[in-house]
Design goal:
Elements (H helix, E strand, L loop, with lengths): L4 E2 L10 H12 L9 H21 L6 E4 L2 H15 L6 E5 L4 H12 L3 E5 L9 H7 L4 E5 L13 H11 L4 E5 L18 E5 L10 E5 L25 H15 L4 H19 L4 E4 L6 E5 L5 H10 L2 E2 L13 H5 L4 H5 L1 E5 L6 H17 L6
Parallel strand pairs: 1-11, 3-4, 3-5, 5-6, 6-7
Antiparallel strand pairs: 2-8, 7-8, 9-10, 10-12
Helix pairs in contact: 1-7, 2-7, 3-4, 8-12
């Protein structure tokens, strides 16, 4: 394998050089931020500055931003403790059928504990409407959870409009947004969505794995998911992951210093789709995606996991959906009620501002060869 052609940036991104440097520096300055001597206080000051960096990108106060280990932890914290905080109101949750597994599996677990969950179905384009959500609300609705950008289709859901509708129905309903694929991939500041709780992850934006954040709007009270030493203002115990936090903040700064990044990602996505449709006539577009970095296509009747493996052998990395599926059929594409041949061949492509036309051409060549050499199924 001479070189890697990578079109799976929705799964994870390479760690930015600025983030690596910040992490190395932090690892060398190893003080515990909770220690009371000077070396510990220096570490605490660095965490404080990094929190301010990430909060600025959110558009929120640093006091509203709490570091977590990942997006999954943030989703669990927001949903479990959000429902608990509204337990006197009821045990009804509204979410969508196209959420990440971190949301859906948490909701299923809460169902086993006595909650009732309404799963909003998307249309064939993967969209959910404000009217759908409004119709699902009930007097006992405790929490709504809706992602900002779908991680498999790139479709942007109308979160800001849905927040307004929910609060107009009942201001006490908590609104959670999984913005893991939306953070720094849209021009809007996440705090301006109006949601009470917003989850993000560092490794989707050029930071390291093992770090994320949960925005908790001022006035919203959640119990900790993790208890212990009382870090993060008593809300998220555990010694602060200073190196990961430093890398996360450095990646955020690096993104902010590249104002043309979203336009470049959108341009290479458009070029890739056009190129693929010309090179592989059998290919169909499931979703062009509203977000600049994700789209979904299909080779109807082919087995997507076989296509992914064949391309992988050529050093071309794409996926058949979320990395968390681990080869299982995509619940997102299934919820869109696509024909079975389309489901069989569904593929996700995701891009970086640094993706090139040469890489897109290599992808087109590899997909063309796969379509010409592989057998379709009988379904």
């Amino acid at each position: 394998m001479d070189r890697l052609i990578y079109f799976d940036y929705a799964a994870t991104t390479p760690v930015k050089p600025e983030a690596v440097q910040a992490m190395v520096e932090s690892l060398g300055q190893f003080g515990n931020p909770s220690s009371r001597y000077e070396y510990g206080r220096q570490a605490a000051l660095r965490v404080k500055a990094d929190r301010e960096t990430v909060a600025k990108a959110f558009g929120c106060s640093p006091a509203e931003l709490f570091f977590t280990s990942c997006g999954t932890e943030g989703d669990n914290w927001a949903i479990r403790r959000g429902v608990e905080a509204n337990r006197r109101k009821g045990k009804h949750i509204v979410t969508t059928a196209v959420e990440h597994a971190a949301v859906l599996e948490t909701c299923k677990d809460l169902e086993r504990q006595g909650c009732e969950v309404t799963y909003l179905k998307p249309d064939r384009a993967g969209r959910i409407t404000v009217e759908q959500l409004t119709a699902a609300l009930r007097p006992d609705t405790a929490l709504v959870s809706m992602m900002l950008v779908n991680n498999e289709t790139g479709v942007t859901l109308p979160v800001a409009e849905c927040v307004k509708a929910v609060k107009a129905f009942d201001a006490s309903i908590l609104f959670h947004c999984d913005a893991v694929q939306g953070f720094l991939k849209t021009r809007s500041l996440l705090a301006r969505l109006g949601a009470d709780l917003v989850t993000v992850s560092g490794h989707k934006v050029g930071g390291p794995k093992g770090i994320g954040a949960l925005y908790i709007k001022k006035g919203v009270r959640l119990r900790p998911l993790l208890t212990g030493g009382g870090q993060e203002e008593g809300l998220r115990s555990g010694t602060e992951a200073t190196a990961q936090i430093a890398g996360f903040a450095a990646a955020v700064r690096a993104n902010g210093a590249d104002p043309g990044r979203l336009e470049r990602a959108a341009a290479i996505k458009e070029y890739t789709l056009s190129n693929l449709k010309e090179a592989v006539p059998k290919l169909e577009v499931i979703s062009q995606g509203d977000a600049p970095h994700i789209c979904a296509v299909t080779l109807p009747g082919y087995k997507s996991e076989v296509v992914v493996r064949v391309l992988g052998d050529r050093g071309v990395c794409i996926s058949s959906g979320s990395a968390c599926h681990k080869g299982k059929p995509s619940h997102v594409f299934a919820a869109m009620n696509l024909p079975k041949p389309w489901l069989d061949g569904a593929l996700r492509l995701s891009f970086s501002p640094d993706s090139t036309k040469e890489e897109a051409d290599a992808l087109a060549d590899a997909l063309k060869d796969a379509a010409d050499s592989l057998f379709t199924t009988l379904s």
